[in-house]
Write a structure and sequence with these properties.
Layout: E1 2-7, H1 11-24, E2 29-33, H2 44-49, E3 53-57, E4 65-69, E5 74-78, E6 90-97, E7 100-108, H3 119-140, E8 144-149, H4 162-165, H5 173-183, E9 188-189, E10 203-204, E11 216-217, E12 220-224, H6 226-229, E13 232-237, E14 253-257
Parallel strand pairs: 1-2, 7-8
Antiparallel strand pairs: 1-14, 2-4, 3-4, 5-6, 6-7, 8-12, 9-12, 10-11, 13-14
Helix pairs in contact: 3-5
Length: 258
């Protein structure tokens, strides 16, 4: 099985690219973030024509998440239970597999804007709400995959210029600790289960030729529970999509499970 995550930065704009990508990479499930459209504008017919079903929750202009899957998803949950938040940032569903139920969660974690912004404590509170919920989810679903744009680069090697980024969001110690708290639940960064090329990133700023200079960050992740970690055989970043005309500023991350 293959699972992937991709912050498409507007599904309306990037839908043709998503459909083309699924032809090249017919993954079993694709988690999308930053749909930037309301549910009534979700392109369900086009996705079904491509052979996928979908669960989604969106809002106008901002946020929005979805899971496209070849088979139906059960036990759908939208947003973090117990965390009051009007922003549409989480959706979860369960796949039936020969190894039992497999929980898939697509998450678009807050950016935080800056260390001085009121969006920064919101980000940390959001991560804590996610942690509390995931602790319960892992007890119900030992086979769990959390995919998405986490807006956190776990280590300095995930940053093109650590000194330049010091003191900014996405790399601050509290944010990295919030991500570490998810690892401490028994979730594992699939990308780091394998040897990877140096300077591997999943996001590049549109400005200042960020992609051409490979001035990026690795902030899009596939996190796997203990049982899925042992079945993971590969995890890669598809940088090719970032070279598309009118690309998202993020690239897909693909994990393969035996």
């Amino acid at each position: 099985m293959q699972f992937a995550t991709w912050n498409v930065n507007s599904l309306k704009v990037r839908l043709p690219q998503v459909l083309d990508w699924l032809e090249t990479y017919p993954v079993d499930a694709l988690c999308l973030q930053e749909l930037k459209l309301t549910d009534d504008n979700f392109p369900l017919a086009a996705i079904q024509e491509a052979g996928y079903q979908a669960i989604y929750t969106g809002q106008k202009t901002y946020n929005g998440v979805a899971i496209l899957s070849k088979q139906g998803l059960d036990d759908v949950v939208k947003n973090i239970p117990g965390f009051d938040d009007p922003q549409q940032r989480v959706i979860a569903g369960t796949l039936s597999t020969e190894q039992g139920p497999l929980r898939i969660i697509s998450a678009y974690c807050p950016n935080g804007q800056s260390l001085e912004s009121d969006k920064y404590p919101y980000k940390l509170a959001w991560f804590e709400g996610l942690r509390i919920w995931l602790q319960e989810e892992l007890q119900r679903y030992p086979n769990l995959a959390l995919l998405g744009d986490f807006n956190v680069a776990p280590e300095d090697r995930d940053v093109h210029d650590p000194e330049k980024w010091e003191g900014n969001v996405l790399v601050s110690p509290p944010e990295r600790q919030a991500l570490q708290n998810l690892f401490d639940l028994g979730l594992h960064d699939a990308f780091r289960l394998f040897e990877q090329p140096e300077r591997s990133f999943s996001w590049w700023d549109y400005r200042q030729l960020g992609f051409r200079r490979n001035a990026g960050l690795r902030i899009d992740h596939v996190l796997l529970s203990d049982s899925l970690k042992t079945r993971c055989t590969a995890c890669v970043i598809d940088k090719v999509t970032r070279g598309n005309e009118q690309p998202s500023d993020h690239a897909p991350v693909i994990a393969t499970l035996a």
